From TrEMBL:
It comes from Actibacterium lipolyticum. Pfam families: NAD_Gly3P_dh_C, NAD_Gly3P_dh_N. This is Glycerol-3-phosphate dehydrogenase [NAD(P)+]. Residues 176-311 form the Glycerol-3-phosphate dehydrogenase NAD-dependent C-terminal domain. It catalyses: sn-glycerol 3-phosphate + NAD(+) = dihydroxyacetone phosphate + NADH + H(+); sn-glycerol 3-phosphate + NADP(+) = dihydroxyacetone phosphate + NADPH + H(+). Belongs to the NAD-dependent glycerol-3-phosphate dehydrogenase family. Its main location: cytoplasm.
Length: 322
């Protein structure tokens, strides 16, 4: 029997664990807190993040990283800004197993994506990324979901595709890790801008315009990093963009909506797009890449400009061909 380890007992990690264990695969879900792990193991559900989604028998929960030492693959469902620190502390146990990043973002301190961090800290491991349009609750409930699995090593990617696919979770394979990472990271930034637009009462037409021009920004940055443009037009780019810009299930959209309405937002909720907007703004300035929406999102988050000022600045840009 295959053994899959999943690092991170948040909603997404838990959803993947339920989906993979539902077909009988041995799954170990690692939780940072011993108390949280014991609670989930006892009640056979994640009452804090996915209440009502029962754990199959082959899903076990642990707070001991050593319990993943014999895993055939380990999925890293940790926040992007925590990934480097986590691997730095635990890489000796995980180094050697294929490591699949499930986080979406750009590291704020280094400007790198997850597979570059994995390759540096765990050089003996195959690095891959799992990304695309998905909500944890849909995956946990067995609803049809399609994702991109990107791995530079084509043979290893094929093996992981077969290992991690389930009847309701369909994985499409790619070797373009850069494009897959950038699509997953940047769509969160555009989702924040879409939430701002709706929260501020600017309308669906404005949201559609932001989504379209935001997609153009995603393609420009991807091209600058020599990613394949086809990747951005797939699940990890356009597909994820559509989902997160139009659903209140998206944390990034809800965060943007709170900014647009002036309401408070729960600071305990991870919003990957906020740090990504800041990291990508720096990259865009250093490389002279035109990314006005991303820069405006970063400025609004940092309190450097109001939503009214950001809107006026975007509308005042020179007219040009599409």
């Amino acid at each position: 029997m295959s053994h899959i380890g999943i690092i991170g007992a948040g909603a997404f990690g838990t959803g993947l664990a339920i989906s993979l264990s539902r077909i009988g695969t041995k799954v170990t879900l690692w939780a940072r807190s011993e108390e949280q792990a014991a609670d989930m193991q006892k009640h056979r559900e994640n009452r804090a993040r996915l209440a009502g989604c029962a754990f199959p028998d082959s899903l076990q929960v642990s707070s001991k990283i050593a319990d993943l030492h014999d895993a055939d693959a380990v999925l890293l469902a940790t926040p992007m800004q925590s990934l480097s620190g986590f691997l730095g502390q635990n890489g000796d146990v995980l180094n050697g197993a294929p490591l699949v990043a499930c986080s979406k973002g750009v590291d704020l301190s280094t400007g790198r994506g997850p597979t570059a961090i994995i390759r540096e800290i765990c050089p003996a491991s195959v690095a891959a990324v799992l990304t695309g349009p998905s909500f944890a609750a849909d995956i946990a409930r067995g609803l049809p979901t399609a994702l991109t699995l990107a791995c530079k090593d084509a043979a290893a990617g094929t093996h992981l595709q077969q290992l991690l696919s389930t009847p309701n979770l369909r994985l499409y394979r790619s070797t373009d890790t850069t494009g897959a990472e950038l699509g997953g990271a940047l769509k969160n930034v555009i989702a924040i801008s879409s939430g701002i637009v709706i929260g501020a009462g600017l309308g669906d037409s404005a949201r559609a315009a932001l989504m379209t021009r935001g997609f153009a920004e995603m393609q420009r940055l991807a091209s600058a990093f020599e990613a394949e443009t086809e990747t951005l037009s797939g699940l990890s780019g356009l597909g994820d963009l559509v989902l997160t810009c139009t659903s209140t299930q998206s944390r990034n959209f809800r965060y943007g909506h709170a900014l647009g309405t002036g309401e408070g937002f729960d600071s305990s909720i991870t919003v990957e797009g906020a740090a990504t907007a800041k990291a990508v703004t720096k990259i865009a300035r250093d490389r002279d890449i035109d990314m006005p929406i991303t820069m405006m999102v970063a400025a609004v988050i940092d309190g450097k400009c109001s939503i009214k000022q950001a809107t006026e600045a975007l509308l005042a840009r020179p007219l040009k061909e599409e």
